[in-house]
Design goal:
This protein is an alpha/beta fold. Among the domains are: 136 residues, P-loop containing nucleotide triphosphate hydrolases (Rossmann fold, 3-Layer(aba) Sandwich), CATH 3.40.50; 153 residues, no CATH class. It has 20 helices and 15 strands.
């Protein structure tokens, strides 16, 4: 469950450190005080979209930290372990700069938003005040039914199997229906590969040929200059570098004294002598390999010409020819799939289809069973919410002509009859705004009971109801709080009085700055707040007595 929420410089909150308990926690306050700020901040830690407007005016960055106790959430611990993150704790952190950049962290490690959202699904489920608007979309009906049945993993598996089959089927169709253009491409690729194979250019051969051609073309100048260099370094009888160095070394040996300068000079002359000897030997060996060979030069230049011609033809450099051949061969292999390979792909596609259909049929059976049960339980809640004549029917309709989708073999739709004897019709065709709110609340309460998520948030879901109905809603939420952590933002005193604990949100202005604070109310403060919710600004003794009675009943 959510144990702690720390907020710094977010919206109009400068600093907020909030500890949360299990059971039902009520959040109330005057309109505009910022009751939803806490939930919005929590949503950011769970991966909601952020912008620079999230940062408090004058601050460089906003920071929100949400801490969770996951000792009883094995799915969350397993997820953390698979991500190589510490699975003994769960701390989500979101940092947003005034420039609009943001970073998310899980247990101190930076993580992408998509990963944060994945983990968040195991931790918190939010039911918003506009939930009834989503109730008008059939896709949301399917999601609610799958969540209620507890077969969300089966639905996810079915989608994955569908995508696997769809990818294989698309590949098979593409390969089996090659166009004339593709066949022409195959012929061109084969011709290009034949040319490249005839050239038979080896890796590094072009660079070696260029070096050899330069040597052969300049052989005369190389030999002449090389011989002169050998004469100057070692071969000339009239005087060469080595002979002169020998004289220098002899003169140095005749000098008396053993000063550091003499020793250093001797070492330097010895080193120079060795270097020149090695240079002369290296040049001699090189000149032994250089020869005037017009025949070989012609062969090399002809080979280079062929390489340059083929490279120009394909508009690449000669060095790129080996890589170009590999790419061309790979493309040809992909386009020239053999009949045997195509048959294997067809068999793989059919196997993938059967795996999808098997999973989808299991999902259909679960949906059909759960649809009947969900309809009955929602109808009980609708009657307790004052819609005594209303009945909800959760219909599953198989697609026509054996069609299917990533979501299975059928579509799901919630149908409603608000008056006895009337046929069931789609929600958007018959239900009013007030009725939709109550229908949505009934469905949320029922689906929340079967939710594996330990923390459920209800954000002003009781809008548009009051009196005895609001009291029923409060009891529903309190009942949920017996086995889940419930956070409920409400304007209704009948709901607020049912909480196990009560948080009060207020807005204060000081020195030209406005900030929101949240306080935990004791029993006397709760009486005062419920009385305010009952009677408005002027709290009377009557409203206080009424509040005490309501809290006493709770």
């Amino acid at each position: 469950m959510l144990t702690q929420l720390n907020i710094r410089n977010y919206a109009i909150v400068e600093q907020l450190d909030l500890e949360l308990d299990d059971g039902m926690t009520v959040v109330s306050g005057e309109t505009g005080a910022g009751k939803s700020i806490m939930l919005d901040a929590l949503g950011l830690t769970l991966g909601d979209r952020a912008d620079m407007g999230s940062v408090r005016q004058g601050a460089e960055r906003a920071e929100i930290i949400a801490s969770f106790d996951i000792s009883n959430i094995p799915a969350a611990r397993k997820w953390l372990k698979l991500q190589d993150l510490d699975d003994q704790e769960c701390i989500l952190r979101r940092v947003i700069t005034c420039e609009g950049r943001s970073r998310s962290y899980i247990n101190g490690s930076p993580c992408p938003i998509t990963k944060v959202r994945e983990l968040g699904e195991y931790l918190i489920e939010i039911h918003g005040q506009h939930e009834h608007q989503r109730l008008l979309k059939k896709d949301h009906h399917r999601y609610l039914l799958d969540a209620y049945s507890g077969k969300g993993d089966l639905a996810k598996q079915t989608r994955q199997l569908y995508r696997n089959w769809h990818n294989l089927d698309s590949r098979y169709r593409k390969l089996s229906e090659q166009s004339a253009e593709q066949n022409a491409r195959v012929q061109l690729l084969r011709y290009q590969i034949e040319e490249l194979e005839q050239l038979a250019l080896n890796e590094g051969e072009f660079e070696a040929l260029v070096e050899e051609q330069q040597t052969l073309a300049n052989a005369g100048e190389i030999l002449q200059s090389g011989q002169q260099l050998l004469q100057l370094t070692s071969d000339s009888e009239e005087g060469n570098c080595l002979a002169l160095l020998n004289q220098c070394q002899q003169l140095l040996a005749n000098m008396k004294g053993q000063s550091p300068s003499i020793r250093q000079t001797s070492e330097m002359l010895n080193s120079a002598h060795i270097q020149i000897e090695e240079a002369a030997q290296e040049m001699s060996h090189y000149l032994d390999r250089v020869e005037l060979n017009p025949g070989r030069q012609s062969v090399v230049e002809e080979r280079l010409s062929s390489i340059f011609d083929l490279a120009r033809k394909h508009r690449i450099t000669p060095e790129e020819l080996p890589g170009f051949m590999a790419e061309t061969q790979a493309e040809l292999d992909s386009l020239s799939l053999s009949d045997q390979a195509l048959d294997e792909l067809q068999a793989e596609t059919e196997t993938a289809l059967q795996a999808f259909l098997e999973s989808a049929r299991k999902l259909s059976d679960e949906r059909n069973r759960s649809a009947v049960k969900l309809s009955k339980e929602v109808n009980k809640q609708l009657h307790s919410l004052g819609m005594t004549a209303a009945t909800l029917a959760v219909e599953t309709r198989t697609y026509e002509n054996n069609q299917f989708s990533a979501h299975g073999l059928e579509e799901v739709e919630f149908m409603i009859s608000t008056n006895e004897g009337q046929p069931h019709r789609p929600l958007n065709k018959i239900a009013s705004g007030g009725e939709l709110s109550r229908i949505s609340l009934a469905i949320q309460v029922i689906t929340a009971q079967s939710s594996s998520t330990p923390t459920l948030i209800f954000d002003e879901v009781d809008v548009g109801i009051g009196g005895a109905i609001a009291e029923v809603v409060g009891r529903m939420l309190r009942q949920l709080g017996e086995h889940s952590q419930i956070l409920c933002v409400t304007h209704q005193p009948q709901v607020a009085s049912q909480g196990h604990q009560h948080l009060f949100v207020s807005k204060q202005a000081s020195k030209g700055r406005t900030q929101t604070r949240i306080d935990r109310l004791n029993i006397d403060q709760r009486v005062g707040e419920v009385a305010r919710m009952l009677g408005g600004i002027d709290v009377t003794d009557t409203s206080l007595d009424h509040a005490r009675e309501m809290l006493g009943v709770a």
